[in-house]
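call fold target=Receptor-like protein 12
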Amino acid sequence: MVVPPLPALYYLSIQLYSCSSSNSSSSLSSGHLCHPDDSSALLQFKNSFSIDTSSLEFELLNETTLYSNRTISWQKDKDCCTWSGITCENMTGHVVGLNLSFGRLQGNIHSNSSLFSLGHLKRLDLSYNDFSFSPIWSKFGGFVSMTHLDLSRSNFSGPIPSEISHLSNLVSLNLSQFFFSNMILDTLSLNRIVQNLTNLRELDLDFVDMSSVLPDSFKNLSSSLTTLRLFDCYLQGKFPESIFHRPNLRLVDLGNNYNLTGYFPKSNWSSPLETLHLSSTRISVDWHHLTRNFKSLRDLYLRNCSFVGSYLAFLGNFTQIMRLDLSGNNFGGQIPWSLLNLETLTYLELSGNNYVGQFPEVDSNSTLISSLYDFSKQQLVGPIPRHLTELNLYGNQLNGTIPSWLGSLPSLEWLDLGINQLSGNIIEFQSRSLSRLSLSANKLDGVIPRSIYELVNLRWLDLSSNNLGGNLEFEKFSKLRSLSALNLSFNHLSVSFNHLNNNTWPQLRLLDLSSCNISEFPYVLRISQNLERLYLSHSRIQADIPKWWLDLGKDSLRYLDLSHNSLTGTVGQLRWKNLIYLDLRNNSLQGELPIPPPSTYYFFISNNQFTGEMPPTICSLSMLQILDLSNNKLSGKIHQCIGNFSQSLSVLDLRNNKFHGVIPDTFSKGNILRNLNLYGNQLEGSLPPTLLTCRELEVLDLGNNKIEDTFPNWLESLPKLQVLILRSNKFYGEICIPKTKFPFQKLHIIDLSNNRFSGLLPTKYFEHLTAMINSQEHGLKYMGEGYYQDTVAVTIKGIEFEMEKILTFFTTIDFSNNTFRGEISSVISKLKSLKGLNLSHNELTGTIRPSFGEMSNLEWLDLSSNKLVGDIPGQLANLTSLSKFNVSKNQLVGPIPHGKQFDTFENDSYSGNTGLCGLPLSKTCGAHQSPPSSFRQEGDLEHGNGFDWKVVLMGYASGVVIGISVGYLVLSNGKPNWLVKVVGRKQYRRTVEITQRCA
């Protein structure tokens, strides 16, 4: 069964508390027997399914009363009216009610199923089973007496048949599915359902694809309607206003229909509506009409909405609201505590906004003092919210300390203050009602308070990414028997597992102890057979992987991260059957490459010492999305089957190994490959033409191989290509004119250095490098996705780096160490966003263009070892970002410019040009050779002979010049090791041959 990720399942469990799961029992009077035809049909129906004992959707609920194998009581020798889930009609003995909700049934419902012979059914509930994407057959329309039909969350798929409209007696219809199901409802079927089901009071179509439906179809729904659920149905267009005028409507859920528009009716009217969910729609929320007309509202969900008018002006009118969600709306300022009725609120969700300030305080009379006002005014906002069960302020900018009154709320079950700027110690919690506590990504310090270890109802605890410290014995959590998720990662804790004997956490699904100074494999986990996610990265485990570890959660484990430790030895055969994510990066593991199960989506095993060839079993990993085997000692050929993964594979990173042979030529049409990195191997031959099918390709790094080919100008049509690195291969010949009208439009990085390219510089390509001409990127954004950050090797200012994160505005051209000839066109000066330009070690002639002074973002410029003549234009002194400049070994003459950046460059920038004069050279200029300078004003910096080009931030008269990534090269003072890695200084001087010209 396809299973949603853990957060979705956890949210699902909250919803299910409100679901009806009552067991129907027999209403048959004693002495009457079940109709034999119905008994036989039920037994056949039972035998057509297996019972799923590992449905994680249900197990994660941790509520055994919510599911059971009802059919276990169905025995042939017993009256079927006594069976669990069966209701019979008194007089005839016919089955009129069948409730198998949460029954763990698994299998297909076929069109000839015996279920359809139960013609007297009035109530049918098959919800929360697994029918393996069976269709909803038209025969469901044959239950003409049906009043209640519930097929929800049971993995049905396909079109909803129009025959459902034949069930004219229906009062309740629930066809909602999980978000990954593929159920479709078209306009024709919906219109028939709306027209014929005139008694309908409850309609639930959550997650049903209605992208082709016109929302106007809903305006004719039954006037008896009380509940309308259309969550995440791909609805688009204008939703009819008349729906809100329904006289009996109590609940409307239109959430997550991102293209659904509409307005509230503006006339004076009164609605009985109690629950309104418009989150993530484009329906205009008019606070004035909302507060005036919806007097009965109790639950209001307006996450990520479009608002008309100030919500502060009308929020105080919602005195009856019990559950309020205003998350994700970029509301700012301080939380309007004074406008909230804290006496009635049970649920308050304000996450994902820009709220600032501190929590209000409590006075001696147990009233809150609003932080919106001066405390000297003693402005009271009411009593402590004693009925509050859920408070979510995640993802704001709240500061100060956590108030102690939060720890004493008697009904609080869910508290999430993650991703704020809260500081100080964690408060003590007197209330034992808490089931979920998240304080992650704040600035909290001190030790974990003692009271947390006493919260016996706690199921979710997340204290990650703070400054908590101290030694922590894991046994302190021994009382938390209901714990399903524990995250203590990235603090300053030292977790030990001493004194743990038979302590177990039977409900534990997620454990994250990354960066907790763990020095051993936690043996206590050996019997945690329900563990699904385990993260022990960035620790101090220095040992072989023990054999018992490979059996840990072998049926349940889905995510395992042991990266950034010191693991040694071989891995052996992996036994986890349902693994999705495996990360063994940055260890010292050896031996043959281990292969995870076919269920794996993400496989990271880079920076180890694995040897040998790729096992053929790697071809079984057809679900892979990211495969990272980089920086090992793997050899042999790359299996052709790798190209067949391209329908799912997004990242293939095999860099820095010893693979030889040719690049697989099996990339198929429609693939989604985004990153292909084969840098640093021994690959030969030419580029495979099927690379042209990789329309999603953004990064192509083939550097440091032995590929022999002409320039692949056919790649210019790839619409998303941003990085093209062909350096240090055997590419040859001239680069011809583009074959398409707009070539390489999104290219940020192009490196053709150290090849055998010849002919003129490809000026026509320079004219169309849109991303380098005018980059629209702002802020620190990196290339990559989800679990993977793109990495490439580039030469910056003469040093080769492995950039472990690529900023989207990083732009560079490196054509060095080829035999390009001719003049440098002024077209290059149009590349205003260019950070680095290296044309060194070629055979270029002519002069340095004065227009180069217009490339205001240029940080390094290397034109050394060419045949350039003339002077150095004074306009280059306007390049205030320039920190590396090299024109050595040319034939330049005249005075060197001075002022600003040029006062920082040393002799080696100009050596080998006998005609140059002026500082920093010892040769002075004659009277007729005044050095050109930029307009120098009072306050400019003095000459800096001690300038270190590694420093990226440099201040001048015009202000601070910010280089790439606010320190991607701050090498002299604690560079971030996750961002850039020095590979080594390289200087190339070699002779290249011109072997081919363009036809």
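return ok
Residues 36-47 form the longest helix (12 residues). The chain is about 5% helix and 25% strand.
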